[in-house]
Design a protein that fits this description.
There is one protein chain. The chain is built from 8 helices and 6 strands; from the N terminus they run E-H-E-H-E-H-H-H-H-E-H-H-E-E. By secondary structure, the protein is α/β, with parallel strands linked by helices. The protein has a 6-stranded mixed beta sheet with strand order 3-2-4-1-5-6.
Length: about 230
């Protein structure tokens, strides 16, 4: 039996000009999860991250904190979906960040307003009735993620360990598939994903199975969940 540990990246920089960079807390979370895995005796035979900066930075911090010698590989299949495309397909005016910020600020509860708007936008994306509006439909995203997992499983030998740094939507897609859930299942899992949490899979002759989802005791009781979406 082999195992795969899926790690959500550390907290990104919500509300900043460049979201795709770890915050100071995100760097700390990445170090914590790396140290925690090392304490558990985890030494990855394969370490992979998606092509996003927040994923790469998390992997780098984990390697340093854990003292691993493995070199991380980049597989774009583990990248998150384009949350801005999901938003702008729903509200084209939000191609302008200035307009979006102004609309959210006018609500006096910008974070809550963002999440409410984003819920509607993701429902539109996952629904499948507007697939041609997206460069990557929800079905295509799910297929890409499935392919990334299949590729990793093929790389692992017997009793080897793979560690992947990815994002909430990707994690939710894999777990939803394993439990035979729906798009609503995906949405709830994505929403509950905690930064730098660990999801464990086991690989046997009969396939891939879910062992744990969203472990984050290593972060303490103040762990943050999704800052925005991914």
């Amino acid at each position: 039996m082999s195992r795969i540990l899926l790690v959500r990246h550390g907290q990104a920089s919500w509300g900043r000009r460049d979201y795709d960079v770890l915050s100071a807390r995100g760097h700390e979370q990445a170090r914590l999860v790396g140290a925690a895995l090392a304490e558990r005796g985890v030494v990855p035979d394969v370490l992979v991250h998606g092509g996003m900066r927040r994923q790469r930075e998390t992997a780098e911090e984990m390697v340093q904190a854990a003292g691993w010698s493995v070199e991380p590989d980049v597989d774009p299949g583990w990248a998150e979906y384009d949350h801005m495309e999901v938003i702008t397909a729903h509200r084209p005016a939000y191609r302008s960040m200035t307009i979006m910020r102004a609309d959210l600020i006018r609500t006096f509860q910008p974070r809550r307003a963002f999440h409410e708007m984003y819920d509607v936008a993701t429902q539109r994306w996952t629904g499948g009735d507007h697939d041609t509006d997206y460069d990557e439909s929800f079905a295509q995203f799910s297929s890409r993620v499935e392919g990334a997992l299949t590729t990793l499983v093929a790389r692992l030998g017997a009793r080897q360990t793979g560690v992947v740094v990815t994002s909430a939507g990707v994690l939710a897609s894999i777990v939803t598939d394993l439990v035979h859930g729906s798009s609503q299942t995906w949405k709830e899992l994505e929403r509950s994903a905690v930064n730098a949490a660990v999801t464990t899979l086991e690989v046997t002759r009969t396939g891939v199975g879910l062992v744990t989802f969203n472990e984050h005791v290593h972060l303490g009781f103040g762990a943050d969940s999704t800052a925005t979406t991914t």
